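I am still getting used to backbone structure tokens and would like to learn alongside you. To get us started, please write out a protein record for me. Start from the sequence, derive the backbone structure tokens from it, and show both lines together. Once you have written the record down, we can walk along the chain together:
***
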Amino acid sequence: MPAPSTTPPATMRLQSIDALRGLVILFMLLDHVRETFLLHLQVPDPMDVSVTEPALFFSRTLAHLCAPVFIFLTGLSAFLYGEKHDGRSAVSSFLLKRGLFLIVLEFTLVNFAWTFQFPPSVIYLQVIWAIGLSMLALAALLWLPRGLLATLGLVIVAGHNLLDPLQFTEGSALHVPWAILHDRGWIELSDGLRLRTSYPLLPWIGVIALGYAAGPWFARGADSVPRQRHLLNAGLSALLCFAALRLINGYGEQAWSSGEDGLRTLMSLLNVTKYPPSLLFLCLTLGCGLLLLRAFERHQTQRWLKPLTVFGAAPMFFYLLHLYVLKLLYLAAVAIWGLNQGSHFGFDAVWPLWVWTLVLAVALFPAVRWFADLKARRRDIEWLKYL
């Protein structure tokens, strides 16, 4: 009697990917509820653990998983797209078109959702911009041999902090490209319009390259046992790298310090830099993400994962939908209760953020499920895949 296959069908593998994407979407929702209704308690990057309450600190830290996981899975999904189509040529073409689409989206619908200002005076170049530009970079880099691509991704992720001392003042020929690549700053386009490069690009190119290089672990016909071993080894290696560098207060981060108690010390250890993402930030977040991806594959037949796969199957639709819903809710709250926190309307504590995140997740779920079903059913509608 033949041994049972250890390789789940492709759709099962995609369920684990969608489940992980769905989980970080909910973390993103929590963070955006915070950015909407806790504007009076904005947190710096990295956070000041001496004045940030633990509930706010860990709510923000959970959201650190979002961008690294999104962009790593973008690279992985690009590889899987090539398996279903005509190889790297089709992938490169798709990445070029979708990358440009996302950049346009960031400048238009996404920025308007944050500001409700037209014409805008400030355009914030955030995660959608970073994903779009990373896609354009991957469209060229995917032609490299897999080993070279993986090496390049590791070099960028591990080495970009060596560039931290480089600064270029406004007026320098390198100010604009450096603001886009590595230095979170401002680009003045005119007297009435400036850009904020919230997500410096260079490290994210390394992350998307690593995601694409990991694609063969999920290739059609690949066995689940070595795939899960790869995910375990990569995830644990990233976390061990984080622990080793963090404990010796080495490379690329502000030093941690002992706090007034164990909780404050833990907060200091986990307090890493996102803009641009330091090596330690990426080791911590990608390490956790890879272990979660492994866990979801091992338990993807469980019913409790199904809602996460729904959110993960329509990420761009959810992204746009929740931004506009949050903005409208904020305007409604101001109209009803006024500006109760100085120049903002806001909650008095962190716990309402979690309550409203749960309420919004439940309220938006039917619309997301409808769109995910539509996208799966109507593959003849070409533009749906861009959302």
Summary: The longest strand covers residues 186-190.
